[in-house]
Design goal:
- The chain has six helices and ten strands.
- By secondary structure, it is of the alpha+beta class.
- It folds into two domains: 110 residues, Alpha-Beta Plaits; 141 residues, Pseudouridine synthase I, catalytic domain, C-terminal subdomain (Alpha-Beta Plaits, 2-Layer Sandwich).
- Strands 1, 2, 3, 4, 5, 6, 7, 8, 9 and 10 form a ten-stranded mixed sheet that branches.
- Strand 2 and strand 3 form a beta hairpin.
- Helix 2 packs across helix 3.
- The longest helix has 13 residues.
- The radius of gyration is 20 Å and the shape is globular.
- The protein starts with a helix and ends in a 12-residue tail after the last strand.
Amino acid sequence: MSESDAFATRRLRLLVAYDGAPFRGFAPNNGVRTVLGDLTDAVSTVTRHPVELTGAGRTDAGVHGWGQVVSGDVPAATDLDGLARRINKLCAPAIAVRAVEWAADDFDARFSASWRQYRYDVWNAGHPNPLLAGRAWFIPQPLRLWAMQAACDPLVGEHDFASFCRRPKVDDGEPEPSLVRRVTRAGWSAVDDVEHHLRFEVRANAFCHQMVRSIVGTLVDVGLGKATPGDVRGILVARSREAAGQVAPPYGLVLWEVGYPDVEIDGARSS
């Protein structure tokens, strides 16, 4: 191997799942444990090469991931199968690499993504479900599923979701970033026809901070009769966080899938 080959790198693409409970969020944060922090340390250790990784979405503390996508550059001679196995040994059980492949040089997990899809689970019964503890929001009061489903209709389309987003901090004199997002799918269903296990699924080009949890909390308020399906359009138009309902707890939320346009991927392998 020549000296130039030894320092050559290639773009890596990882499909990652994680339990969000032990972490203070996904993105690196000095002084606290994060998903990407642990993953970066593991990849750097295995490849013996400092890496900088990028994720498709920044999930909050306690939020889980099943279809998170991560990209970064590693030595070109890296054995992908071996990399995945060793990362999984180092990061188990909280983080798992589900698949690994080489990507095109211009692939970026965040900026190349076309859409993200989230799931939020609710256990709606008079008793808790220990098997879903930490994975679903337990709501003992009866929910009107039909009303929650009807309340999803105004969310579909391109809107300013300021009512459902935690406004980002900006320096004095800087303009606030746009909170306009395009939602292409939103709906509730009963999981495996179990009437007590409800699931909300939403897909959009991107999401702002606490957007899904704020939407879920508002739709649950509709299910509880604290608001009507028709109120949701007015909440959107208000563009005020005070207009929306409660923020759902993080542990019921999962980043389920990330979509990309057709990109050239070669040497694809799965762990």
